[in-house]
Amino acid sequence: xxxxxxxxxxxxxxxxxxxxxxxxxxxxxxxxxxxxxxxxxxxxxxxxxxxxxxxxxxxxxxxxxxxxxxxxxxxxxxxxxxxxxxxxxxxxxxxxxxxxxxxxxxxxxxxxxxxxxxxxxxxxxxxxxxxxxxxxxxxxxxxxxxxxxxxxxxxxxxxxxxxxxxxxxxxxxxxxxxxxxxxxxxxxxxxxxxxxxxxxxxxxxxxxxxxxxxxxxxxxxxxxxxxxxxxxxxxxxxxxxxxxxxxxxxxxxxxxxxxxxxxxxxxxxxxxxxxxxxxxxxxxxxxxxxxxxxxxxxxxxxxxxxxxxxxxxxxxxxxxxxxxxxxxxxxxxxxxxxxxxxxxxxxxxxxxxxxxxxx
Amino acid sequence: xxxxxxxxxxxxxxxxxxxxxxxxxxxxxxxxxxxxxxxxxxxxxxxxxxxxxxxxxxxxxxxxxxxxxxxxxxxxxxxxxxxxxxxxxxxxxxxxxxxxxxxxxxxxxxxxxxxxxxxxxxxxxxxxxxxxxxxxxxxxxxxxxxxxxxxxxxxxxxxxxxxxxxxxxxxxxxxxxxxxxxxxxxxxxxxxxxxxxxxxxxxxxxxxxxxxxxxxxxxxxxxxxxxxxxxxxxxxxxxxxxxxxxxxxxxxxxxxxxxxxxxxxxxxxxxxxxxxxxxxxxxxxxxxxxxxxxxxxxxxxxxxxxxxxxxxxxxxxxxxxxxxxxxxxxxxxxxxxxxxxxxxxxxxxxxxxxxxxxxxxxxxxxxxxxxxxxxxxxxxxxxxxxxxxxxxxxxxxxxxxxxxxxxxxxxxxxxxxxxxxxxxxxxxxxxxxxxxxxxxxxxxxxxxxxxxxxxxxxxxxxxxxxxxxxxxxxxxxxxxxxxxxxxxxxxxxxxxxxxxxxxxxxxxxxxx
Lengths: 359, 512
Hints:
The complex is a heterodimer of chains A (about 350) and B (about 500). Chain A has about 350 residues and is mainly alpha-helical. Chain A has 14 helices and no strands. The longest helix of chain A is centred in the first third of the chain and has 30 residues, at about 105-135. Chain B contains 17 helices and 24 strands. In chain B, the strands form 6 sheets. Chain B has a 6-stranded mixed sheet, with helices on both faces. A 6-stranded mixed sheet of chain B has the order 18-21-22-15-23-24, sandwiched between helices. Chain B has a 4-stranded antiparallel sheet with strand order 2-1-4-5, covered by helices on one side. In chain B, strand 19 (about 370) and strand 20 (about 375) form a beta hairpin. The model of chain B is unreliable at about 505-510 (pLDDT under 50). The interface of A and B includes residues 1, 228 and 229 of A. Chain A: It is found in: Cell membrane.
């Protein structure tokens, strides 16, 4: 089992290298210098306060939405609606940050998070309830409800909650609800540490707690869980609500850390990047942070690559796409490994046969 | 004996799957007009051997000869051409097509561009007449019984010109009566000069039908014996590699006590029309095993699901130790004292992606001491699991192994360990030894006997009639969702139970 896991990491690394190579070949074919482009990409992502800050600021919501997606996947749900939960969470935090003024300092921040989480969780509960009660496909509901969430927020920041400045945004949240910035003048903020704490919490919850055990039992085999006496429906709804809450937190951090208000259409499919980060690593909670950082770095570094190496930044999307294609080809490296093993065995004249692994 | 006598010869065959040696230097040969049984436990390599003969797998080493001709790169197409036919364990029939259409599928006689159905019908009718098979060629497969479907499979192979018939566990799905008929057909086929390979692990059937018996164990060829020189006990010993007690009889030492389970006029929906439960009533007492016999799919599964809370009861009541548990959620039914070994071990019984220890603790992982302050205490789980692994002799003796890789017997022992450990007053055991090797069967039956001796009630459902007869104190026979008879196991004969299983005897002989 352990061996299988480490094989996974190797596969992931090979996939990464392979997709970079394909990207390089592509760049070379259209007349750019691949090495130069990658150097600029790396520099643009990590070298310098602003660059690193931008990467980290992009990293946080990708990470949280990715974790959210992975948690839903643990209860065998495909939460395609995290973008909606992110928007609603952001709006909820913007509302609580501006209008709820009686709470002092840290309590105000906590309250904003709480509201964002509750809103995100309740929104995610809708597809879950429809799924367990009437067997409605949660992916359809998620995709559709995301539009509802987005347009609802759009209406709020243009209408009832508008700042009145002609820009579709809500009024600034009060100063005590703002998360401190780090690595100024980038938009990176204290939300990074909250996100890191959440990694540990979710990791503990899924792999160490009884609740996580239930999630996994339901996600891996519903019939078995039902027979053992677990309330499968309840657990599925719980899993989706945790997932939605994470989306809500992601939105809240964007508002309270990066912007200070809710800006219409502020997220250009952040949750999709998170979802992809999670899918690439087979929804392995411990790998989601790594992959999220990678995706964030690609996004952040793309601009400087374009500026200094002259390579259009859409090339990054190409690399990401290639990566996803390779990563979803689960047997890509297994097949070649199998062949290699077979070849090796033949070469040794079957001298070392291992008695058989099945027990 | 000269080599020309063999229609099939497999010499020094070897087959590996990744690192697993499925077949290791094995031999098999078949004379014309004989019935040759190939026996062995699950995973012994019998099916793999035969799949190589049928061209489904390629051997890594060794020689396959058909009619003395060495075959290379055998494919099913070539094997059929050479007269090899295989009746698989799961029937390969198209449910929506008629018997006739199924038989000729892929080998249709043509008249110009159209299929010559008259010709096909004539040919099939000759087989039906020759071998006295009762088949109506124009019925659709989903309208005929399992026994008939099997005969269709046999005709299909004959129609394709088979001289050698490979039968993979053919009797597993048949009632005793159907078995008798099936054996008659085999005899006729033999008389006609067909050669038959009979794969089984039911030793009494092997003894009844075969001329010779080959034994495999753990991928290795053990020996070939003439039937007249052997007996079931010896064969079992050869299969398992040690002495085995084949028949663990129900010990009548325990006096049945209080009524533990009472099912009263139960009605439920069914997966199929004939498996709806229609008004079933019976009781199980403490210290008693009640066996449910019946042809698969006559409502046994639905009955168990209804009792355990996995299927909705439409009418009637289920009472456990005096408490009405009708339509209880599985958790509450368990709390009321119900333990359940489900029939679908790999779907319901186990979470195959999880480790042995997580499966063993699956009923109480969220309780102390296995979870404290919301955090799971894996040390306690390990201790608990290792204890059960030792007690129930689950192999491998490593608690963190994923159950996927376990053999049927050891996987089943996990389920049994967990359910027996739960200690309910009623233990429902559905198909407890299905797909389990002989050694494990022995241990599982012993475990169930001990549970009974502890004064618990056992409700046993099994498609293996021998098992029901051996283990039960009373036998409830089901047919089309109804009880056709309740018999005392001591007085009942197999034939009698078989009649009830076919619904031929109505409820005229109820036990008082």
